[in-house]
Amino acid sequence: MDRLKDKIAIVSGAGGGIGSAICQRFAQEGAAIICVDINPSTLDSTIAEIIRYGGKANKLLADISEEKTAVDAVKIAIDEYGGLDILVNNAVYDIALGPLTSISLDDWRRTMDVNLNSAFLMSKHSIPEMEIRGGGSIIHIASQLGRTARPGRPWYCAQKAALINLAKAMALDHAPQKIRVNSLSPGPVETNRYLTNFSSQEEAQKTSNTLFDRLGKPDEIAAGAAFLASDDASFVTGSDLLIDGGYTVP
By CB distance 3.0 to 4.6 Å, which of 19, 59, 157, 194 could disulfide with 14? Predict the structure, then answer.
């Protein structure tokens, strides 16, 4: 497991279940990671796990919706490791489920800033450094709900669909720089964030709507991210890697 040896990565939302799993998998594959999150306790937990593996990581405790965070993350990558090869835009901000008419403008703007605008900011400041390195890989963590819909999630469905098409547009623009851009769409995954929507873990498992009648594991999503980040995916760009247990098949 050394497909990312000597690579430098930035991962936003690094303290969450999927983000932490991606950071740990990247470290196991040999990458140095700048872990970005707004939650100090979960961010520290991710860093501790990476160090336990003997991996290399720096933390940036910051609000991903602010442009300064993107600038600072890229600066850390350059100052500490000499460049940047991989960017994973994974940050997410949730609000209460409900129809569009129940969402305040402030909540809508906050979800847009974290879930979509942060991918723009991080990509904007990362691409020039990737070009200097001779190319790179950008991964937007989207969702199966970017392809279909569920009640009470208009903000989430819209923003995840936007990330999928943003990856395609960016792939067109940045192929000459040898920068691959893809989205990765997890289905329902067993994380604390997902489980809070249910009264129990058993209820969450029963309502997974996957062909395997179970939730995905964060490590299963991290494996897909490691593939897209590595040279194994050297001919993959503008794609959406769907890892949803068959959720979207019926």
Answer: 19
Q: Report the candidate in 204, 25, 185 with the shortest Cα–Cα distance to residue 90.
A: 185
Q: Which residue type occupies 212?
A: F
Q: Which position among 81, 156, 194, 247 bears the catalytic label?
A: 156
- pLDDT for 137 equals 98
Q: What is the pLDDT of residue 204?
A: 74
For residue 41, count other CB atoms closer than 10 A to its CB: 8
- CATH code, domain with 216: 3.40.50.720
CB 66 within 8 A of CB 44: no
Report if residue 2 sits inside a domain.
Answer: no
Residue 93 to residue 110: CA distance in whole angstroms: 8
- 159 is in which domain, residue-wise? 8-243
**Confidence check: pLDDT of 192 > 80:** no
d(CA 34, CA 149): 33
Both structure tokens of 205: 């498992």
Is 248 domain-assigned? no
Confidence of residue 206 (pLDDT cuts 50, 70, 90): confident
Domain membership flag for residue 249: no
Query: At 1, is the pLDDT very low, low, confident or very high (cuts 50, 70, 90)?
Result: confident
Total domains present in the chain? 1
Is 156 an active-site residue?
yes
Q: Please report whether residue 125 resides in a domain.
A: yes
- pTM greater than 0.90 (yes/no): yes
